[in-house]
Specification:
Blueprint: E1 4-18, H1 19-22, E2 30-42, E3 46-50, H2 62-72, E4 74-75, H3 82-88, E5 96-100, H4 106-109, E6 119-122, H5 124-132, H6 138-143, E7 151-153, E8 155-156, E9 171-172, E10 180-183, E11 192-196, E12 201-203, H7 212-215, H8 222-226, H9 231-247, E13 252-254
Parallel strand pairs: 3-5, 5-6, 6-7, 12-13
Antiparallel strand pairs: 1-2, 1-4, 2-3, 8-9, 9-10, 10-11, 11-12
């Protein structure tokens, strides 16, 4: 019996990308791509989000928000928020029991203040960034819930998985092997990717714009590399994901901006 009952991709905002400026060998034009949030239902733990998407909470710090928008070209309406998306699924925000994060970008954490009660889970490294890194996006610092949010770090996964041929450490996000986590840092500090074995889905966050980068071997431009937290780690992670894509073609890759 599957532990993951359902998995859906919710579009919680949009971002514009000038693709020809970002990759050296592409004829892709400027595109407006979704900001993706994963909604899962676990047989034991209930409904779980991976990231939360954009909300007006991001505008609380106008200066930080203005700087953020100059870099990201993000757009979102009230109907794009994860709260509205959940209502379209016939769900109340109270149904969300756990939130898994890929990184501390505002598009990942923006709706945390709107969720009434949940446990926040990620790698120990990412939780440390969220709590203590003064260089983190000021939007996150101003919108993160002021009340205490239960936080839990993942343990190392001890079972067998094809991820172990590509990643040094694999973490067990829920403790039952149904969601595995790996380090895909580069685009952001302590960025985390999630593999759902029963669905053969790997959510790779901002490790690339979308799956076309893996399929076409697109190489990032100097401009794109300059936008990353660590350009060397970004290239290394991209190479690792391409290896996994080649060796396990049955895995479906979803990125933060997959169509």
């Amino acid at each position: 019996m599957n532990r993951i009952v359902s998995l859906k991709v919710l579009h919680c905002g949009y971002e514009e990308f000038r693709m020809q400026e970002l990759y050296l060998n592409t004829d892709f034009n400027t595109e407006v791509l979704p900001i993706n949030v994963i909604l899962m239902e676990h047989r034991k733990f209930g409904h779980i989000l991976i990231n939360t998407g954009c909300t007006k909470e991001m505008k609380r710090n106008p200066i930080a928000y203005s700087k953020y928008m100059l870099k990201h070209r993000v757009s979102f309406k009230k109907e794009d928020t994860v709260i509205e998306q959940l209502e379209k699924e016939g769900m109340d925000a109270l149904c969300i029991k756990k939130v898994l994060l890929t990184h501390t970008n505002a598009e990942c954490c923006g709706a945390l203040p709107l969720l009434p009660k949940y446990e926040l889970m990620s790698t120990a490294q990412l939780l440390c960034v969220l709590r203590f890194d003064n260089d983190s996006d000021n939007i996150i610092k101003s919108t993160f819930p002021k009340e205490s949010v239960p936080m839990k770090a993942f343990n190392v996964f001890k079972g067998e998985t094809p991820l172990k041929s590509c990643f040094k450490y694999v973490y067990d996000a829920l403790g039952d092997g149904s969601v595995l986590a790996v380090d895909i840092r580069g685009a952001a500090n302590a960025m985390t990717g999630y593999f759902i074995p029963e669905e053969n889905v790997f959510f790779a966050a901002d490790a690339a714009i979308d799956e076309r980068v893996l399929e076409s071997d697109l190489f990032p431009s100097e401009k794109l590399l300059a936008m990353q937290y660590d350009a060397d780690d970004y290239i290394s992670t991209l190479a690792t994901l391409r290896k996994l894509h080649r060796t396990c073609p049955e895995i479906r890759f979803i990125f933060s901006h997959s169509k």
